[in-house]
């Protein structure tokens, strides 16, 4: 038996279209590696059910599917609208008030209290993903903004508001986000995504709460604000992963800038050895159609070629009519690109001789070069913290990456990282016995065949589990 798998991972959002154990298992079988719980919607009881289902499926079927909690963040929204909708017309002067009251003819209302303080004359205010635009004429810096309609249309309840020209004063974590985060930490979610990140301090704050709770949950910074782009190097340095959240990002910076921002973010994350997720509208038409458009297939393929660790689906799997077909389609596109594109593999980056991990980093880089030169079938790492796994993935070896660890939670965490497949292992006796053991496991499971070259990385003496300091080439 010869087992192959996609290197680029798939993150799928759970919703009414996918929240039963049967559906979740079917999605995993089609190629889902991680599920996203969207905390902009749904009661705790609903999220709890999904968490329990995924954990049970992992146990029953020996899977390592991980959970990503996505916090809503300070999403600025309109309030409720009289009769469910009103029209605004180009050239019309309207008021925008910050008291959460009912939106009526000529007077829009937002639930965001600081809007009048944050905007200034001339600033654009975009509604409903930029479908409508009004421009600020004046503000009383307290409760009321006067504005002119630039692009009119139908105003619907609770639609999002974007302020691309304004510095938003809302904190990156609202009271709701902090409560939601504690719920996620109670359930030991492997990853938490922070929305509307603007600076490194936002990440420090969420990490402080996680550390206080004594949890190992890793943080994904969602990049969707112009300020985040300005501070991107500091953000990448302190976060564990990045999400290119192209929806709000496109509205905030302009759609035409998003493709190159995506490429820049992916490249910076690859260089830093941090996972990067490309999200939003990847297979949008499959919410209602059984097949994707050519453009969507191209979009997924381009994210894979760019070097994304993970591609993400939102409404397609949460509320779409064809969640299974969507994953099948995405998985097939990934597989086809990976089988035919050579430029996505075998990356090399200069080492930083001043890094405290310089020696082990050099060793991992060399293990990947050796795998390339010998056409090895697998590169194998052993880790307690996960560091070796992230480092191996950084170099994008064509060889399969297998990680052995005694840390059960880490096995799930790594399921979001490019190319990594994890196995539970807790023996760590002598180096030879351990390497032999691992070889046997991979042969038994069909991941290695007799005669395959494989590269082991480990730390010697093996029972001390320190940083990687050894490479060994073997033939199965």
Structure description:
The strands form 4 sheets. The chain has an 8-stranded parallel barrel with strand order 1-2-3-12-13-14-15-16, surrounded by 6 helices. A 6-stranded mixed sheet has the order 6-5-9-8-7-11. Strand 17 (378-382), helix 14 and strand 18 (400-405) form a beta-alpha-beta unit. Helix 1 (21-30) runs parallel beside helix 12 (323-340). The two termini are 15 Å apart. The protein is built from 16 helices and 21 strands. 36% of the residues lie in helices and 21% in strands. The chain has helices at 21-30, 44-61, 115-118, 175-186, 200-212, 226-230, 232-238, 246-253, 258-272, 294-306, 315-318, 323-340, 358-373, 387-394, 408-413, 431-444; strands at residues 9-13, 34-38, 66-70, 86-88, 93-97, 107-109, 124-127, 132-139, 144-151, 153-155, 161-162, 191-194, 218-223, 241-245, 276-279, 310-313, 378-382, 400-405, 420-424, 453-458, 470-475.
